[in-house]
Amino acid sequence: MTFNIEISKDTRCENGFVYEIDIGAHREVVPIMTTRWSPEAYKRQWVEALEFLVASRSSRCALITCIQPESVSYGITYWALFREGDFVYFQQIFARENYLGFLLSPCMVERHMPDRMEGTFEEYSQVS
Question: Ranges for the CdiI C-terminal domain (predicted)?
Answer without folding.
Answer: 37-92
